[in-house]
């Protein structure tokens, strides 16, 4: 589930990169999206699930921080604020994946509280 979420995030970032390049919107932001998309796909195969809880949290938190660092300056530039808003959404998605990984470690499925 975690790898599928990371792959989906990487593919969405690559599509955002292609859209930004086709629209000629802020080349620095478009190329940052493309490089972070390739990095997310690489992290899904190389890091997640293989380096333990701390490695997973560092990888996902680093990706969320990089996306947030790209989103904040772009939100102040009106011509590319639509592209930056997607970076903010994807940063929240990466942070959500990190929280899901942390909660999955704290409450493993066999010890999860039963609601019914």
How would you concisely characterize the structure shown here?
It is built from 4 helices and no strands. The chain has 116 residues and is mostly helical.
What does this entry look like structurally?
It is built from four helices and no strands. It is elongated and about 50 Å long. Helix 1 runs antiparallel to helix 2, helix 1 packs antiparallel against helix 4 and helix 2 runs antiparallel to helix 3.
Structural class: mainly alpha
What is the terminal-to-terminal distance? 24 Å
Sheet with the most strands, sense and barrel status = none
Shape: elongated
**Radius of gyration, in angstroms, nearest whole number:** 16 Å
Averaging pLDDT over every residue, what do you get? 86
Low-confidence stretches: none
Share of residues in strands: under 5%
Q: How much helix is in the residues? A: over 70%
Number of strands: 0
H and E order? HHHH
Helix count, DSSP H or I runs of 4 or more residues: 4
């Amino acid at each position: 589930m975690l790898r599928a979420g990371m792959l989906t995030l990487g593919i969405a970032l690559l599509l955002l990169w292609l859209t930004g390049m086709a629209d000629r919107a802020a080349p620095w932001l478009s190329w940052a999206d493309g490089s972070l998309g390739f990095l997310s796909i690489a992290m899904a195969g190389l890091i997640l699930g293989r380096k333990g809880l701390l490695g997973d949290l560092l990888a996902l938190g680093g990706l969320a921080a990089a996306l947030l660092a790209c989103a904040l300056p772009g939100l102040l530039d009106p011509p590319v604020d639509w592209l930056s808003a997607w970076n903010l959404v994807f940063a929240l998605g990466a942070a959500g994946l990190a929280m899901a990984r942390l909660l999955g470690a704290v409450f493993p499925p066999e010890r999860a509280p039963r609601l019914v």
